[in-house]
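Exercise: predict the fold of this chain.
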Amino acid sequence: MLIAIVIAALVLGWLFLLAVVPQDRIAGVGVGLVTALFFLASSPSVPEAVRDITLIGGLVLLALAALSRPWPRSLTHPVVLLVFIFYVVSIVSTLIVFPSALNAVLRFAALAVIAAVVVSQFTRRDVLALVKFLVGFAVFQVALGVVEVAVLGKPVLWGYGALPSGLPALYPNTLLGEQVLRVQGTAGHPIPYAMLLAVAFVIVLHLHDEWRLRFRLGLLSILTVGLVLSGTRSALVAVAIVLAVKLVTTRSEKRILSVFAVGVAAVIVVVLLGSSIADAYREFTGTGSFYNRVGALASVPALLARDLREVLFGSGVGSEASLFGRGFLQQNGFNIVDNQLVTTLATGGVIGLVLLLLIIGVAVKRSDPLTRALIIVMVVAMFSFDYLRWFSMIMLLIVVVALPSASSGYSDESFSQETTRLVKARDRRKSEKARLQLTL
């Protein structure tokens, strides 16, 4: 009964959106709402009943977004096909080896495949609607983070999750001092929270044809504050890499933004290295998280020494506990892999890992500068977090790898009109700047 009420409410809400949002943006807004929904109410900190309703609601919204477009369209987008094959392999290996996790894998697969289909069909205006929605939601999460650290002393809505020991999952922020806890907003963990902010940071950095420079600088400053509050080094590293790539590859960027980028990069270096490079290096390499991630990479030879079937197809999603017990993964007591690539090799085998790398590789080949930068963020996250078990991060990854680019995305009349509008806006700003220089 409750599920029926939720679905009815979502359909009514969608009809309202159809009345107020232009049709050529409705799919982008819909995917943005789904992404926000999963970041709000799908983490392990959320009661299971709420998580179930969130999943159903997200799938319903994705279906409505798909139906808002004229059909049929081509479903042969290579990323969609690879995502589908990746989850077919995951389902089969889990069904054979670890069937108790099959229900979870089917949920992950349904979300990933449907989201990939919808996002791959975006027009340029859908893309712009989605990325702007994500930036707005990220700024909202920063505000929640400030409330968390300055007012409540715990995450908004759901509080802190629990460790396997039953104790609250408290993560000290080594960037601001051990007495300060890392901020996580409603994401359920500091890393997904920070990766959402990093994605928004990259989007703002690249939307130079959409927003005025001062507005973009303000957004970048807000997002930088949120990233520092999260205490997530991997997100800061991802942002630093993106900034470095952009500075090297961009010729026409305004000087003030380049200066800002260099300043942010310098702040990140200072935060990461501290007053002494040697002291910071010893501090970083002395943390349990560092040793755990090194241990994950060190587990690769053992994982490749399993029997041939497990090497090729893995031991099934959810089988990590068994692999820890059998000695194939880290033996340091953490029982968390902290590396999505190693986790995929363990549970999906070489075939699963190759498919995941193919998804990323094909996405890079079909990308534009914005999507390439977003892929950098998601790849860096893979080396510090097992995120394919989180609905929010699956949604974020699929958005990034399936997002059409100007060179390879679906093209129609609205795409051409949007491209023409952006070119005219750029030329108009150049003309105004030239007139101002002549006046001076």
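Check your answer against the key: The two ends are 70 Å apart (CA to CA).
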